[in-house]
Amino acid sequence: MADSAFTVRVEGLDDLKRALRQLKDSDLNKRVREVNKAAAEIVKPEARKTAPSGHRSRKDSKKYKPGKLEKSITVLASANSAVIKAGSASRVPYAGAIHFGFPKRHIRANRFLYRAMARTSDEVSETYEREITDVIREKLES
């Protein structure tokens, strides 16, 4: 599977993370994690909407159930980042092949996660900026 990813860079985020580590404030770290998750959650509905749903033919394995890829899209967040992922090694092992392609099997890449992020990037940026500003303002006022 490829290690490429669609990322959003936030100016000053490294300085903010450094300041958070110096403060050693677990409540503040929790709030920043919540902000990261809230920003990433904006992408999730678009990703689910654009994920290939597939169809089952007679030749398909009985284990193959259309819609599993769509349902496997999740958001993971920490104080440092947020990640939107699809699939898992045990339940949806073909997610990487669908997203990045698999030329030997004649599967063309369908980068639905990247497209979902591109479509919602403005809203994600606005939400992140608004929420992180509120967190900083709360911390400075207390």
Distance between the termini: 46 Å
Q: Which overall shape is indicated by the principal axes computed on the Cα atoms? A: elongated
How many alpha or pi helices? 6
Taking all residues together, what is the mean pLDDT? 84
* CA gyration radius, whole angstroms: 18 Å
Report the biggest beta sheet as strand number plus sense, adding barrel if it closes. 2 strands, antiparallel
Order of helices and strands: HHHHEEHH
**What is the total number of structural domains?**
1
- Lateral arrangement of strands in the main beta sheet: 1-2
Poorly predicted runs = none
Count of DSSP strands: 2
- Tell me which oligomeric state these chains represent: single chain
Strand content: 5-15%
Give the helix level as a range of percent.
Answer: 40-55%
User: What structural class do you assign from the helix and strand content?
Assistant: mainly alpha
Protein name: HK97 gp10 family phage protein
Organism: Kitasatospora atroaurantiaca
Biased composition (Basic residues): 55-66
InterPro entries: HK97-gp10_tail
Give your account of this protein's structure.
There is one protein chain. By secondary structure, this protein is mostly helical. The protein has one domain (26-53, 63-141). Helices cover 53% and strands 6% of the residues. The chain has six helices and two strands. A two-stranded antiparallel ribbon has the order 1-2. Strand 1 (74-77) and strand 2 form a beta hairpin. The mean pLDDT is 84. Residues 55-66 have a biased composition (Basic residues). It comes from Kitasatospora atroaurantiaca. InterPro entries: HK97-gp10_tail.
